[in-house]
Write a structure and sequence with these properties.
Chain C: One of its GO terms (molecular function) is heme binding. Chain C: It holds the Pfam family NIR_SIR. The complex is a heterotrimer of chains A (170), B (102) and C (551). By secondary structure, chain B is an alpha+beta fold. Chain B has helices at residues 49-59, 87-94; strands at 15-21, 27-30, 36-37, 66-76, 82-84. Chain B is built from two helices and five strands, in the order E-E-E-H-E-E-H. In chain C, the strands form four sheets. In chain C, strands 16, 17, 18, 19, 20 and 21 form a six-stranded mixed β-sheet that branches. Chain C has a five-stranded antiparallel β-sheet with strand order 1-2-5-4-13. The chains are: A alpha/beta (170), B alpha+beta (102), C alpha+beta (551). Chains A and C meet through helix 3, helix 4 and helix 7 of A and helix 1, helix 2, helix 5, helix 6 and helix 9 of C.
Amino acid sequence: MPLIEKGHIVEDSFVRVADDEALPEGASVLVGIDRFLTEAEALKARQAPVGVVWPNNRPIAEIAPHLGQLSLIALNFPSFRDGRAYSQARLLRERLGWQGPLRAIGNVLRDQFLLMERSGFDQIEAVKEADAEAFDEATHRYTVFYQPATDARPSLLRQRLGRTVPGVRS
Amino acid sequence: MAAPQQQKLKVNGPVAVTANRLTDGAVVWRTKAGGWSVELADAAVVTTADDALALLAEAGQRDLDAVGPYVAPVIVDADGALAPGNLRERIRVAGPTFELPH
Amino acid sequence: MYAYDEFDRAFLAERVAEFRDQVGRRLSGALSEDEFKPLRLMNGVYLQLHAYMLRIAIPYGTLNAAQLRRMAHVARVYDRGYGHFTTRQNIQFNWIKLEELPEAMAALAEVGVHGIQTSGNCIRNVTTDQWAAATPEECDDPRIWAEILRQYSTLHPEFTYLPRKFKIAVTAAGHDRAAIKVHDVGLRLHRNAAGELGFEVLVGGGLGRTPFVGKSIRDFLPARELLSYIEAIMRVYNQYGRRDNIYKARIKILVHEIGAEEFSKAVEAEWAAIRDGALHLTDEAIAEIRDRFIYPAFETRTDQPAELVDALADPRFATWHRNSVHTHKVPGYSIVTISLKPVGAPPGDATADQMDIIADLAERYGSSEIRVGHEQNLCLPHVAQKDLPALWAALDAAGLATPNVNLVNDIIACPGLDYCALANARAIPVAQEIAKRFADLDRARGVGRLHINISGCINACGHHHVGHIGILGVEKNGQEFYQITLGGRADEHAQLGTLLGPAVSYEQVPGLVEDVVDTYMELRAGPHELFIDTVARLGVEPFKERVYAAH
């Protein structure tokens, strides 16, 4: 599946490793939460970047103690109609201060790209090739945004008043 | 609430497969030739659950012509003419049961 | 009237372009129906029994004449010449073609009207009192706050795929015409002892399969903190609302399962982290929105001008005046309700011609403003009393002056099985038959205020739980049956109705309702005891005995 990072289709430098698969030598790995928690020491000892898929049903605040050892956080959309990861993403960025890569995975479709970008995702793993190619169009369809979110787009509340909001990532 | 698509299939009598046309939502019926017709008279009629499921599966393979296919009861009269088999289908075929505003 | 600015207009044009692209992708096969459905729903497009249906938002129930005229145009060109006003300050067109929808939406967008978030699991059209800025009862114009919420919630990146739909209603008057206690969030605007504006916040109200009256989780939320508090509620719900079962996914189930106190604690904790952030409303931000509302230039007038007094000699006019004209906050002005319930017609429907006539009359007599209420009637909020006779004559000629507002044949009904893909039973013809039983409006007036609400299925779009008489259509062995409840109400004393007894057949409903009404007439303490008060005093038992003995 094509991976889009900051608007461009890129090679995925992380290997997605299932819980029962051996860890590939020296490679950056993206693992599930169970493996991440049970093999924390082994993963640390590998000296290679580690990413975790944080589940929708676990409060995102619980990731806080682990942020220092993570190089990637992926949040899942089991269906594009399931929006829990939007809240998790915003909390990660705005509350927990996560500056590293944040990836949307799962049933990720074109019509949700903009919402994902606005919620703080900077990596998007699209299901469809054609959707990935339309990324630029899909995220530039709108020039007007009513409400402040995680992204740097000026919101209408601010635009109208010419004020800026502190604490918003640019 | 319980749209027919969500209900368990029960076949006791003649049934057809119906849906709404993608472009305008018009009520359509699955035909023997594997197409869709706005005329109930053109509908393929089956009488067993297996045949109904087969007809439904075949109708659902492509969702570009018609949307939301399901199995609906029909009445076959002595001359073989078809009529909708319940109130919901009568309304789908004949429109609302009161005079529309004009 | 709220005046959209260049930002709003640009946004709507972009939205239309996006939907046009989505329809194109659907028609080409790039989008499956499963993928397209939530996208069309988010633009108010349903697929019903006979055709696609387009639901257009009328934010906080306010329309101008040009907008209503454009709706008439859409009804004529893209539909079958009429529209249906709903219980949530929306209008629905029942016969729209998918291929033509982008054109229809573009035509509506030109006058600032759209179907955005009239469906889907998002924050829906925010509703309020149709008498806003006209009634003397209110502490502020609730539409200011509804507009702030509209802007905040439009295409919200975090809250567009909630567990389930989310409905917010606002009232600023002591008498609640917005049914805030049966909404996911109800906001009651009031002033505290220091004279500051704030909201009482209720959560977890709602009808449908599991009805609840909302629970108050905050007595006084300073008005300028509205958005951060709402965001806290939404964030708690988005993360913890159930997604395993569509019937248990509304916020009312979450509030019920963990308790209002626990829920409130979670909201307060989230709120503490964001209340001083980007959503804090400054006085300037509020004033900027407030300034975009245009109010009529009221002239200095007095109540009961000679033109009105003379006209009241005509008994037909006097009857309509007593029924459909209400007190305005400015002397010499009145609020006029336009009944969309002529006896025997589908409740809430208006033809394109009627919409045009109402738009003309609003321009001539009502500062170009039209309101839509959840009772499925329209309203001209600012009419000079001297113009009432002429307005009435014009409404009467168009079949729009039935003096039955709030009476037994001012029935609220969902579209039911005649249109709706979810319905189990018809609602509109039931309403028509009941209305005909009380076609003698003298009799209906003798009965007094009585709200009948009819829903064609448990989803309760006709708000049957909160009807003084509630009627719910169910299906039994392929036949339509109806459960009757008594004693529900949607106002500030909101409560759910009590089941009267076993469900009855379609044919039995009008007679049964008549028996209920006759029983009330016999049992009431006097002509001033309303139906709802008699039911409250006596319970449903005496009604049950009488009614089921007769059937």
